[in-house]
Write a structure and sequence with these properties.
The chain is of the alpha+beta class and 463 residues long. The protein contains eight helices and 21 strands. The protein has a 15-stranded mixed β-sheet that branches.
């Protein structure tokens, strides 16, 4: 039988071939990133790298699903192979629904503007040193942007996730959280601030305060309800990915700052939350404290990487909810067909007491961001999922800018504990209790550091 080179199953065979080889460039019809790099800087369309069935959900499902449709238990079988196992279970048994949109073909819609510019400017310059850390050609810390936009192995894919979580040099996300119990009731509600300040690997090429031994500061503090108001944490990451971060916390009941042990990374930040520090972006721990990295598959997936996930025009950017026993377990999410994802597995080798046995992450090769993560427990049972929603902060109602361009970031997260039946869901709002507002730029980075990223700041925020 004669098989046409570009028949409907060509992509599937190509992905299988890539997986067997272990090292391969993104793209099916041509290599994605070399194509972008060769093009004029204004040309960021990925269409030439993928056949239509990987950019059109309608073609991929042979007409069964099209943009504008809503995935429910009645039609999920047509996209079951495009969802992680927990998301699939949620749709089948918990009343979750997913709205489908056109696939994003313009890379500028999938990055902060300055991060994409730095990625293109520094492409091909990253390398690992003998210790396994990413370095610039002169041995200095990474120059900024995605170090391996076209990863050739599992370690490169992991490094892309860990070096810059939010892809902004600084961001403050005013976050509203709801924690849902197995009965579908809201058990806890929190307002908290999530901040990230890159010390190295910055898009401006600078090293903040000359601290080339550090990667980032990550501070989190709670402002609501009153019984946790002032609870705060400061996570100081070293550039050396074999070193555990310094984790400081302020608990109002004790009225002092204390240092937490490393294994605190696998415990909830506050009562009722499913979120652990280790969960963040599937890269919440230094890269070299995890190991046995391996790419097990390449495939298309549905991911919430769509402008429809920005709630501009709604009060405080609040996300609508649905599903579960009482109609409030899940965010309304807009997903699109991501044409190629790396499926990456790893294990917490540096944490002998970690409750996690294995983590599987689906990484969209268009921007090297995780679109889904699922962990198993030590017995091998599927345990938790971490599912983010991303968007350019612009729609027909509102545009939120960074340096004159539409901002880009995460807009919400759902973390589900399958074994306990509990959901933590939170979204980025304009403002939360305490007057803290979402922001992506500042006129004084030193002021941001002094106000939020020191032990004195923790005590002040807690007071």
């Amino acid at each position: 039988m004669y098989i046409k080179k570009y028949d409907f199953n060509y992509s599937r065979r190509k992905f299988l071939e890539k997986s067997l080889l272990g090292a391969a460039s993104a793209g099916v019809l041509t290599s994605l990133w070399p194509m972008i790099a060769r093009s004029d800087s204004a040309v960021t369309d990925i269409s030439k790298a993928y056949p239509d069935e990987l950019l059109s959900i309608e073609m991929h499902t042979k007409g069964m699903i099209k943009p504008g449709d809503v995935i429910t238990a009645d039609n999920v079988e047509h996209v079951a192979h495009l969802l992680d196992p927990i998301a699939l279970e949620q749709v089948k048994t918990m009343g979750r629904r997913i709205r489908i949109a056109e696939s994003t073909r313009d890379l500028t819609k999938l990055y902060p503007h300055d991060y994409l510019e730095a990625t293109l400017r520094n492409a091909g310059k990253a390398r690992f040193d003998s210790a396994g850390n990413v370095r610039a050609p002169d041995g200095a810390p990474w120059l900024g942007g995605c170090p391996f936009p076209d990863p050739q192995n599992a370690e490169e894919a992991a490094a892309d996730m860990v070096l810059a979580w939010g892809r902004n040099d600084w961001q403050m996300s005013a976050t509203r959280d709801h924690d849902i119990d197995r009965n579908g009731d809201i058990a806890y509600q929190y307002d908290f601030v999530w901040t990230e300040l890159q010390v190295t690997s910055r898009t401006d090429g600078q090293i903040f305060q000359g601290r080339d031994d550090l990667l980032r500061y990550n501070a989190t503090w709670f402002t609501r309800p009153d019984d946790v108001n002032g609870t705060s944490y400061l996570n100081t990451w070293y550039y050396d990915q074999s070193k555990f971060p310094d984790l400081l916390g302020y608990l109002p009941a004790f009225r002092r700052v204390r240092q937490f042990p490393t294994n605190q990374r696998f415990e909830p930040l506050v009562p009722g939350m499913v979120l652990f520090l280790s969960d963040a972006w599937a890269a919440g721990d230094p890269m070299l404290t995890w190991g046995n990295y391996r790419i097990v598959e390449r495939k298309p997936m549905l991911g919430a990487q769509n402008p429809g996930n920005f709630m501009g025009g709604r009060d405080n950017w609040e996300k609508p909810v649905h599903g579960g026993p009482k109609g409030q377990t899940f965010h309304e999410t807009v997903m699109e067909l991501c044409p190629e994802c790396i499926v990456l597995e790893s294990e917490p080798v540096g944490y002998p007491r970690a409750p996690v046995g294995k983590r599987t992450v689906w990484i969209d090769v268009r921007n090297q961001l995780m679109i889904a993560s699922v962990t198993t427990d030590r017995k091998g049972e599927v345990w938790k999922s971490f599912e983010p929603q991303y968007a350019q902060y612009s729609n027909e109602h509102e545009t939120f800018t960074k340096a004159g361009k539409p901002a880009w970031s995460w807009t919400g997260v759902m973390i589900y504990d399958r074994l306990d039946g509990r959901m933590t869901r939170y979204y980025v709002g304009k403002e939360i209790q305490g007057g803290f507002k979402t922001a992506f730029e500042t006129n004084d980075v030193n002021d941001v550091y002094n106000r939020y990223m020191t032990s004195q700041a923790l005590q002040r925020l807690g007071g």
